[in-house]
Amino acid sequence: METTTLPRNATATATAADADRIAAPRLTRAVASLIMACIFLQALLAGGFLAGRIPLAFHAGIGHTLGLLGFIILVAGLVGRRSVREPASTLAARITLFVAIAITIGAGTIAHMGTRDLLMLHIPLAIFAMGTADGLRTAGRRGA
C-alpha cells in the first residue's frame, strides 16, 4: 500500500487559487469598468449642471443607469456563485457597491425634491462606489 504525500504548501496553494476565482470574471470586469466610467461622467455632468450648461436630467439619467449596472454586477455574482465559489469578500463587495449606488441615487433624488440633508452623502458615496468598482474590476482581471 503506497501513500501519497502532498507538499507542505499544497493547502496554501489551493486556498490561494480559490481566492482568485470570481463568478463571471469578464462580465464583472466590463460592468465594473462601465460603472467607473459613468461615475467619472457624473462628475463632469454635475459640474456642467452647476455651471448652468447641462440639464440635471442628464445627470439623473446616468445615475439611474448606474443603478442598473450595480444590479447587474450583483446578480452576476449571485447567479455565478452556483458554479464558482468566489470568496465571500467579493460577494460582499458586490452587495456593498449596489447599496452604495442605491443610496447615492436616493440622496440625489431627495435633494432634487427639495431637502438637501442627504446631499452631503452623495459625492462621498460615489467616490466609495468608484473605489469598490475598481476593486471588482481588478478581481475580474485576476479571475479571468
Structural features, described:
The chain has 144 residues and is mainly alpha-helical. It is 78% helix and 0% strand.
Percent strand: under 5%
Q: What is the assembly state of the chains in this entry?
A: single chain
Our Rg estimate from Cα atoms comes to 19 Å
- H and E order: HHHHH
Mean pLDDT: 86
Q: With helices defined by DSSP (H or I, 4 residues minimum), what is the helix count?
A: 5
Poorly predicted ranges: 10-16
N-to-C terminal Cα separation, in Å? Answer: 40 Å
Largest sheet: none
Q: What shape does the CA trace take?
A: elongated
**Strand tally:** 0
Supply the helix-strand structural class: mainly alpha
In percent, how helical is the residue content? over 70%
Give a quick precis of the structure:
With 144 residues, this protein is mainly alpha-helical. It contains five helices and no strands.
Entry keywords:
144 residues, mainly alpha, elongated, 78% helix
SSE layout and pairing:
Layout: H1 10-19, H2 25-50, H3 56-80, H4 88-113, H5 119-143
